[in-house]
Every structure is written in C-alpha cells, then in structure tokens.
Amino acid sequence: MLKQQLRPALVLTLLLCVITGLAYPGVMTVLAQVLFPHQANGSLLRAGDSRVIGSELIGQAFSRAEYFHARPSAAGAGYDDTLSGGTNKGPTDSKLADTLIALAVDSAVKLDAALRGHIPADLVTSSGSGLDPHISPASAFLQVARVARVRGLDSLAVRRLVERHVEGLQFGLFGAPRVNVLKLNLALDSLSRSRAHR
Question: Which of 35, 49, 63, 190 has a C-alpha 20 to 30 A away from that of 19?
Fold first, then answer.
C-alpha cells in the first residue's frame, strides 16, 4: 500500500521539479533574451568606451556641482541596492523634518538658489525604494543654471537637453513625467565633450 502511494508521489515531485525548476525558467530566460535583451540583462548603460557605468533602473549618487543631482536615497549615500527600502519615517518624525529634510532644503537653497517653500518634494525626500533613478522635470529645471554655470555651457542648451530627456507617463497612463538622472548626466557629458572639440 505504501509503495503504491510513494512511487506516484516521487514521480510527481521529480516531474514538477523538472517543469518548474528547469523547463519554465529556461523558456522564460530564452524568451527574455530574444524579446527584451536590454531589460533582461539589467537595463545597463554604457559609456562611450563600452564600459558599464550603471543601470537605468537604479539611482546613483551625483554630488559634484557639474552634474544633475538625484533625489536623496534611503539606501545610504551610495544608492546601495542591497539596502532597498524606505526610511519608514513619516511626516511627524522629528528627525526627518528637522534633520534630513532641512539639510536637503539648505543644500537646494545653497547650490541652486532655490526659494524655500518652492523646492520640488523629490529633491528633499527619498522614494519608497530609496533607489529611484528619476527626478521630476521641475527638479531638473531647478538645477539647470548651476550645471550650465559650472560647465561653462549656455543655460538654454542645458535646458533643451533636460527637455529632451523628460519621459512621459508609463504606457501613457501611469505615474508622472520624470527625468532619468543617469541618462541625463551621460548626455550632459557628451554635450560638454562635443563643445570642447569645437
């Protein structure tokens, strides 16, 4: 009796292991590589010399004045992808309001001559994952004058660069317009190099 029940159970277990552990992941991997190779390989962005410099899906810290700055990260200073998650600090948390947001506001006022009370929220607060690679168009436009001044570029040219990098709604329905900071900074480096070679 036990032998009659044990054999089908073992056969079914092995069959499910082959289907769910080998066949399904293998088929999905092949389909992903054929249909969406860029996304399946991490949406990696490369510099001009083909060296990988990051993923368009994970934010990076830019602190130098000649670059557009991303929003603050709850995952540490370097956008550590192993620490993804929010700060779990709400609007009544005194450390968030008195320290973290206050420092971010002071930085925006000092670096970009922003007016207190008119700073886009995403420049002073982190995203839910702490790894958001995007900022709002308003945050990018606020930084145009600083970036243009430090790089010695025409602010109108930098503003047009930002306008070209504004991404619309996801599938035309979801989210809000946004700017990928890493893509924008790569384009900015390219613009600076092209101007330097003239």
Answer: 35
SS3 call for 135: strand
How much is the pTM?
A: 0.75
CB atoms within 10 A of CB 162: 20
Q: Kindly report the backbone phi and psi dihedral angles of residue 46, in degrees, each rounded to the nearest multiple of 5, phi listed first.
A: -120, 150
* Distance of alpha carbon 186 from alpha carbon 80, whole angstroms: 20
DSSP 81-128: GGG-S-----TT-HHIIIIIHHHHHHHHHHHH-PPTT-S-GGGTS--S
pLDDT at 34: 92
DSSP symbol at 49: T
Closest CA to 186 of 161, 160, 167: 161
Nearby residues of 147 by Cβ (< 8 Å), 6 or more positions away: 65, 66, 67, 68, 153, 158, 188
